[in-house]
Amino acid sequence: MSIEISFLGAARTVTGSKYLISDGKHKIMVDCGMFQGTKDLTEMNYQDFAFDPSEINYLILTHAHIDHSGLVPRLVKKGFRGKILCTKPTMELCKIMFIDAAHVESIELEWRNRKRVRAGKEPLDPVYTVPDAEECMKYFETREYNKAFPVNGFKVRFVDAGHILGSAIVEISYAEKGRNKRVVFSGDVGNERQEILSDPTKLKDTDYLVVESTYGDRLHKSRQETVKEFAGIIKKTKNTGGNIIIPAFAIERTQEIIYELRMLYDKKKLEGFTVYVDSPLAIAATEIFRANTGFFDRTTKNRMKKGMEPFDFPSLIFAKRADDSKALNEVKSGAIIISASGMCEAGRIKHHLKHNLWRKECNIVFTGFQARGTLGDAIIKGNKTVKIFGEEIAVNAKIYTLGGFSGHADRKGLLSWVSNFKSKKPKVFVVHGEESSALKFGSFLRKKLKLKVKVPKLGEKAKI
What is this structure's pTM? Predict the structure, then answer.
């Protein structure tokens, strides 16, 4: 069997994960993610796919983050009629995420199209609508971890990636000249020792490996150091006044931060603060977490058996109504506001930044990756002003980046995960990283593990 992989997204960039596998007879995909970041990247979401969606038999999703699954409704809209295979939490999270993304885009697109029309440009049609988001869910089917299932002439297996709830590493097996061959797609490899989730599964055997490199060029602080720094930020804010604003991905990062704040509450380190979760998607995702505790790690399950509720404590408030969110604009101190989107590109977080970013007594705490060209990227790079809703906002608040809360493994964690493939040395394709990060991690793998490494460009194809 001759196999070809086309790298149609997340190639020398972080977002838009999209890999097309063809054996000459059948076509299957791994992930169908949305591009985020620079204008050139986001414009790609509105373009036609580089393939005919009606020819795809199966779509396999590693997890529910929008950069891995966000174009699924558009794929169906453009003619896909196959099966979408993923874990149960991934399906449930996708359902709420697609509808939320369609709502958010309708608001953002209205504002963008007003500008386009004023500039003499044609208005853009939405990437997809709420009905499109609802329609695509009929093609979803769930599969369990560690149980192989047939997909055309392949066998596919999901194992726990430890990245977000239900995230999977995808192992695809096939026969070639009487020999069994494997290709593994890492998806996003989780950061070890995260709360709530188990560590990523370490596989031992593959012929080909497609591995992410989001943090392939840097190291995180330890979990213990990160929690200590977080507690220190809270203490400083209590002494100086002001609010703490946390842009957080609605799925996984928000729940993990709530969990950590619960632990700090139990240690009496949140006195004087009220924690607000202001994201409809994050609130809905938290309910899905509560309904899927079987996917939690052993430590969290044991704590729950002893009566601990991971996502609830007396000073925690979920801002469910729009009026609840707007009221936070008047809160000048004592608030810890967790809001989406994590890269500050859309949603309620932009309002909270507009009302707090210019205040020197406030603190902004980033806990996840900021893609190049996003508002979050501009803030952490030290811009003195940023534009929010067309208005220039001064950056006077203190900015913190807590990489230890990241759901992605750092360079050391990725190296540890890749080095576990010991029975043979796989050929490696490094993806899902900004170009500099991907190239550096590729070079690192060559030097440390003596592997054959390719860092594909967008649209490149590889025979395996």
Answer: 0.93
